Amino acid sequence: MKNDILAKRYAKAVFIVGKEENALDDYAKTLKDFAELYTTLPEVRDGLTNRIYPADVREKVMAAIVKKAGVSQIMGNFLNLLAQKNRANVLPEIAASFQGMVDVERNVCQGIVITAKALEPALLDKAKQTLEKITGKQVVLKTEIDTSIIGGMIAKVGDIILDGSIKTQLEGLKESIKGSE
Fold first, then answer.
1. How far apart are the first and last CA of the chain?
2. CA distance 124 to 132
3. What pTM was computed for the model?
4. What's the CA dihedral at 76, 82, 83, 86 to 10 degrees?
5. Rounded to the nearest 5°, which phi and psi values hold at 161?
6. Closest CA to 102 of 26, 6, 7
7. Is 141 helix (H, G, I), strand (E, B) or coil?
8. Domain definitions of the chain by residue range
9. What are phi and psi of 164, to 5 degrees?
10. What is the mean pLDDT of the chain?
11. Is pLDDT at 181 greater than 70 in this prediction?
């Protein structure tokens, strides 16, 4: 909970600056990349957050990563500030909050379509159009393959979940048969 509040504060500050600099996309990409780096590489996470290392060493680790990544000076300063304030552990939440703010600003929402096998582009586009009608927003879809759903699809956008999977239909049929016994 505390991290969510901190993340929103930091994300809001970067969002305001990003909007002024007309660099929301660049900032979103940088935050996403650093959050992925933090979450996928334990040695990076350790180097930025482990209290065994003195604060100046953790700051040098962040500065080296920032320099190697070649990010803008403003984002570099922001990321170095996170290291100085011992807030690098909040990077994933900051990236998510920032992306949420960008999405609201642009009337966009993130969604996911889960299918048993890869969708043809035409069908994916039709699903996207349907979700855009339902939400009234532009939808950015990610796809995921889950063979356990057998067939059909599950679409999730925000709080909306549309489940047309065969697995769910079979479970519903099973429950209705049990109920009639």
1. 46
2. 12
3. 0.80
4. 180
5. -130, 120
6. 26
7. strand
8. 2-103, 107-180
9. -115, 30
10. 93
11. no
Q: 141 near 128, Cβ under 8 Å?
A: yes
Task: Give the strand pairing for 138-145 and 108-115.
Answer: parallel
- Please give the Cα distance from 82 to 76 (Å, whole number): 10
Q: Per the structure block, which two tokens stand in for 51?
A: 């209290």
* pLDDT tens track for 111-121: 999 999 999 99
pLDDT digits (tens, 9 = 90+) for 66-111: 999 999 999 999 999 999 999 999 999 999 999 999 999 999 999 9
- Out of 1.20.1420.30, 1.10.520.20, 3.30.300.30, 3.60.15.10, which CATH number does the structure's domain 2-103 have? 1.10.520.20
Q: Residue 27 above 90 pLDDT?
A: yes
Answer yes or no: is pLDDT of 127 > 90.
yes
Give, to the nearest 10 degrees, the angle between helix 2-20 and helix 24-40.
150
Pairwise CA distance, residues 136 & 147, whole Å: 30
Pairing verdict, β 108-115 and 153-157: antiparallel
- Spatial separation of the C-alpha atoms in residues 30 and 8, rounded to whole Å: 17
**Distance, CA of 46 to CA of 75 (rounded, Å):** 21
What the block records as the tokens of 172 is: 């519903």
**Tokens coding 46:** 């350790």
pLDDT score recorded for residue 1: 57
